[in-house]
Every structure is written in structure tokens, then in C-alpha cells.
Design goal:
Length: 171
């Protein structure tokens, strides 16, 4: 298929999306207010807060796949925030979805057993629920929400500089 035969709606939307990410042609960009840009760890922590807030918004509406995806993302962003704030890591160190679990063990944030189980949960179930043919269940979504909130709350309390978390998740 030649480029010229692609649907115009797709090529137009693709050009607009690339322009948006390049911040071209639309004036001053409107950024998400709740994301703290002062330091990489604050950015990652507040991204986790926003992911959890989105999960709260869609809870009980049957969006199990989205909930699971957002919860894995919130867990990763939370642990990355700790590694950036307390471990001296750089954002570029997190080039995949599993480095954060290794760093959680290395930094003593969580035990080897727990991080191994978290990584196994990711490796086995995230891939299947997102890419595989399985249909996620409401129970899986609910338990992932509880897990992501627990990890986020714990990590937030372990970062020495507090007052950054912007979510309503009880800690």
C-alpha cells in the first residue's frame, strides 16, 4: 500500500499528533496542571497520582483492561519516583517496564520476594491482559487498583521530600 492510498483522516490526524508532540503551530501549549515538572522524580510521582485518579474515575464502569494498564503504569511511575529521588537514578535508566522492579530491590525499597512477585505479575499478566486473548475480569481490575494504590502510598511515604503527591489516595 502506498502512502498516498492511506485514509486521509489517519494521515491528517498523524500529522496533527506529530505537530502537537513537537509543539508546532498551535501557540503556547496547555499542559496538565497536576504534573509537577520541577524534578524528574516529582514528575513521575505526580504522573502516578494522575493515573490513579483516572482509575478512580473509571472504577465500576467495566473498563477492566484500562484499569489494569493504568495500575501497572502507576506502580511503575511510583517506584521510578523513589529511584530518582532516593537512588540517584536518571530518567533515561528506565527504558523498559521492568527496570523499576529491579531498582526497588537494589535500593531496599521492597524485598526481593515482593519485587520478584511484582515483576512476575507484570510479565505474566500485563502482557496477556493487554496483548493476549484473555479478557480481564472485574476482580483483576479491582485487585490491581488496590495494589497500585498500596505501592503508591508506601513509596510516597518513603521519599524524604514530601508534599508532592497530588492524588486523593489514602496513605
Amino acid at each position: 500500500m502506498s502512502r498516498e492510498s492511506d485514509p486521509q483522516a489517519i494521515t491528517d490526524a498523524l500529522i496533527a499528533a506529530v505537530d502537537a508532540f513537537n509543539e508546532e503551530g498551535y501557540g503556547v501549549p496547555t499542559r496538565e496542571d497536576a504534573i509537577d515538572p520541577d524534578a524528574d522524580w516529582k514528575t513521575q510521582l505526580t504522573k502516578a497520582c494522575r493515573l490513579l485518579s483516572a482509575v478512580d474515575t473509571i472504577a465500576d464502569q467495566g473498563f477492566c483492561t484500562a484499569t489494569i494498564e493504568l495500575c501497572f503504569g502507576a506502580t511503575e511511575r511510583s517506584i521510578e519516583a523513589y529511584a530518582l529521588a532516593e537512588g540517584g537514578d536518571e530518567l533515561v535508566d528506565f527504558h523498559d517496564h521492568t527496570t523499576c522492579y529491579d531498582r526497588a530491590t537494589d535500593l531496599g525499597l521492597l524485598s526481593t520476594t515482593t519485587t520478584r512477585k511484582l515483576r512476575q505479575l507484570y510479565d505474566t499478566n500485563r502482557t496477556d491482559s493487554y496483548y493476549g486473548g484473555r479478557r480481564p475480569t472485574e476482580r483483576q481490575a479491582d485487585t490491581m487498583q488496590q495494589l497500585a494504590q498500596s505501592v503508591h502510598g508506601y513509596v510516597t511515604n518513603q521519599i524524604r521530600e514530601g508534599g508532592v503527591c497530588v492524588c486523593d489516595t489514602p496513605h
